[in-house]
Known about the structure:
The protein is mainly alpha-helical and about 200 residues long. It is built from 8 helices and 3 strands, in the order E-H-E-E-H-H-H-H-H-H-H.
Amino acid sequence: MHWNTKCNHDIEVHRRKLCENESRCFFQQLIDAVDYCHSKGVYHRDLKPENLLLDYQGNLKVSDFGLSALPQKGVGLLHTTCGTPNYVAPEVLNQQGYDGSAADVWSCGVILYVLMAGYLPFNEINLQTLFEKINAAEFTCPAWFSSGAKSLIYRILDPNPQTRTLRVYKEADLLRMDMQGCCTAYTELAKSVTDDIRAG
Length: 200
């Protein structure tokens, strides 16, 4: 994972495999932020690690709302196909209108996978092959994922947008566990990043 200083001492969260506790802390903050945006009727549509910032206190921030949108009046669906291909939900690719909330949730699931695995669940050079795998949710979790992590990720990366909601995932066992150890690991991670930047 590369850590680049940003304005206001923010740090870009890029790819490096994190332990489950660290990943849980990132993900919990991510879905809380996304849930807040959705409560205001804002859908990001380009969620990915490169658009997540971590400050020196370990606070996660969502950035780059350049592709964000509000639902169209009287319809409630979005129609513009946009986002980063590896993180885009199946229904976005089908170009028949999609729910912005469910699409963002899919992207959050891909992010959780990347944080824990260090690589993408859907990653093909050929875009057609990539889209076919996304549409079929064709991926596997690494052996080192816990059963709770696997269960959560498989539930989020569900091709059916109607059953893909933040409310369900916020109640997942992985996120209901005691967060004390998680937060300790997260604080240590933020401190180590800060030390690396100062040393560099």
